[in-house]
Design brief:
Number of strands: 6
Helix content: 25-40%
Oligomer: single chain
Radius of gyration: 16 Å
Largest sheet: 6 strands, parallel
Shape: globular
């Protein structure tokens, strides 16, 4: 998406890593740790889509009409009662798409690894296809008065 504008949001602790990512591309802005809760909500509400983890920002995005793609670490077929299960705790909105990885051996019920494990099984092509699907549906009524408020990525 060469004409897209991307905005990275997160906490102050994410600012340095997000800055390195933003410095690699001309169309990426880094707002990590720079926005109030109200400003963050407004930015997300004006985005074409929100792409991030099942986190507080994903739930904030669910309060807007912004389409949401959540990258979930809980494997497909995992226990629906597990604390990471999207059936329990994913953001609630009719605009949410949850992408779950296939499980690694030993993670069939849940991925309990301390480091990224099953989530690495999410294919880039799957994420890109989900983004293309959201963009193809369009975003009626989008208004953008915040620079870079087209797509929001969470760190």
């Amino acid at each position: 998406y060469p004409d897209a504008l991307f905005t990275i949001v997160g906490g102050s602790a994410d600012r340095l890593a997000a800055g390195r990512l933003a410095a690699q591309e001309h169309n990426v802005s880094n707002y990590c740790g720079r926005l109030s809760f109200a400003e963050l909500s407004r930015l997300i509400s004006q985005a074409t889509l929100f792409l991030g983890a099942d986190s507080g920002m994903g739930h904030l995005a669910a309060t807007t009409r912004t389409p949401i793609i959540i990258l979930c670490c809980h494997p497909l077929g995992g226990s629906p009662s597990h604390y990471n299960s999207p059936s329990r705790f994913a953001p609630r909105s009719r605009h949410v798409t949850v992408l779950q990885p296939s499980p690694n051996p030993g993670c069939e019920i849940a991925c309990e690894a301390l480091r990224a494990c099953c989530i690495k099984n999410l294919a880039v092509d799957q994420v890109v296809a989900s983004i293309a699907n959201v963009i193809s549906r369009g975003r009626p009524g989008l208004r953008s008065d915040i620079p870079g408020a087209k797509s929001v990525l969470e760190t």
